[in-house]
Design goal:
alpha/beta; disordered C terminus; single chain; 27% helix; 9-stranded mixed sheet; 4-stranded mixed sheet; 21% strand; TIM Barrel; 9 helices
C-alpha cells in the first residue's frame, strides 16, 4: 500500500475485492464509496465511526484511501436497484480530480439500468455531465444546511455554498434530477425556508434531516454552540441531552405549511423516480430518518 502526503492529507492506494455493498440506508439498495475516508472534515460527520474499520490512527478527515477494484463485469445485475454513491464519503472530493474513481464507477454502471443517486458537497460533479446524461435514471444531491458562508466554513472544508448552488443549477438545467438535502438542520441556525426559496427553481426534491448528535463529535458541537451561539445552548441541551423532540416536531409542521403555501407535495417517504414541476419540488421529511424502516423508502415512520 503506497502512501503519499499532499496538502496535509495522507493518501494511500488500496485494493478491494468488491466496490458494491448492500445498503441499510432508507434511500438505497446498494452503497458505493470510491474512497475510504473523507477530506471535507465536517465537524458533524456521522461517518467518522468508519475510522475504526480502516486501520488508520490519524483523525478522520486527514486521510484518504483510494480504492482499486475489479471491473464490474455484469452491471446489468443491478438493474432496477438504487445505487447510492457517497454514503460515507463524497465521491467528488477534491482528490477525485486527480484519481477519477467516481468517473470510472459511473462508466462501469452507465448501462446497468440501475437508478444512481450521487450525494455530494462539491461542484466537481459537473465535470461528468456527459456521463450523467447517458444514465437513464440519475439523481444528484447536494448537502446545503445554511446560506451563511461563515457558518459553513466553521463546519466543513468543502466548496462554498454558492459553488454548490451554481452546480445544482447547471445539472438541473441539463435535465438531470437534483436534490437539495438540507442536512443536518441545526436547531436555531439552519433557516430551511430561506434555503428552500433559494433552490426551489433548480431542484426536484428537498430533503430535510435533523442534526443527530452522537459519538465523539457530540461534545465538539455542543462546545461550538456554547462558544458561538450561547443563547441556543438551552435548546441544544434540551434536544440532545434530555431527548426533547418538540423543536423538530414544530419544524415538521412548519415544513408542511411551507409546502402547502408553495404548492409542493410534503411526504414522509420519497416518491418513485420522477421530475417535479418547475418551482414546486417535492419536500421529503427525513427528520429522524433512522426511524424509517425498510430499504427503498418503503418503511413508515415510527411516530411518537
Amino acid at each position: 500500500m503506497a502512501e503519499t502526503r499532499k496538502n496535509d492529507i495522507l493518501i494511500s492506494e488500496i485494493q478491494t475485492r468488491n466496490i458494491m455493498t448492500k445498503s441499510s440506508l432508507p434511500v438505497g439498495g446498494y452503497s458505493v464509496n470510491p474512497y475510504v475516508g473523507c477530506t471535507h472534515g465536517c465537524k458533524y460527520c456521522y461517518a467518522c465511526f468508519m475510522k475504526r474499520f480502516t486501520g488508520h490512527t490519524e483523525p478522520w478527515g486527514i486521510f484518504l484511501d483510494v480504492k482499486h477494484w475489479p471491473e464490474i463485469k455484469h452491471p446489468e445485475k443491478y438493474q432496477g436497484q438504487r445505487v447510492v454513491i457517497g454514503s460515507v464519503t463524497d465521491g467528488y472530493l477534491l482528490q477525485e480530480a486527480q484519481f477519477g474513481n467516481t468517473r470510472k464507477l459511473l462508466e462501469q454502471l452507465k448501462d446497468s439500468g440501475a437508478e444512481i443517486l450521487i450525494c455530494t458537497k462539491s461542484d466537481l460533479v459537473v465535470r461528468d455531465l456527459d456521463l450523467l446524461r447517458q444514465i437513464g435514471k440519475v439523481t444528484v444531491s447536494w448537502s446545503i444546511n445554511t446560506l451563511d458562508e461563515d457558518f459553513r466554513a466553521d463546519m466543513d472544508k468543502a466548496v462554498s455554498i454558492e459553488r454548490r448552488l451554481t452546480a445544482m443549477k447547471q445539472v438541473y438545467d441539463a435535465g438531470i434530477r437534483t436534490v437539495c438535502f438540507i442536512s443536518p438542520v441545526f436547531p436555531g441556525i439552519t433557516d430551511f425556508e430561506a434555503i428552500f426559496q433559494r433552490v426551489k427553481n433548480q431542484c426536484d426534491l428537498v430533503w430535510l434531516e435533523n442534526l443527530n448528535l452522537r459519538g465523539g463529535f457530540k461534545q465538539d458541537i455542543l462546545d461550538y454552540i456554547a462558544d458561538k451561539y450561547p443563547q441556543l445552548l438551552p435548546l441544544y441541551h434540551a434536544t440532545y441531552n434530555r431527548g426533547d423532540r418538540s423543536y423538530f416536531q414544530s419544524l415538521e409542521k412548519q415544513a408542511e405549511q411551507m409546502a402547502k403555501e408553495n404548492g409542493c407535495l410534503f411526504v414522509d417517504n420519497e416518491l418513485p423516480y420522477g421530475r417535479a414541476e418547475p418551482g414546486h419540488p417535492v419536500i421529503v421529511d427525513y427528520f429522524y430518518h433512522e426511524e424509517i424502516r425498510g430499504s427503498g423508502n418503503t418503511g413508515k415512520r415510527k411516530r411518537t
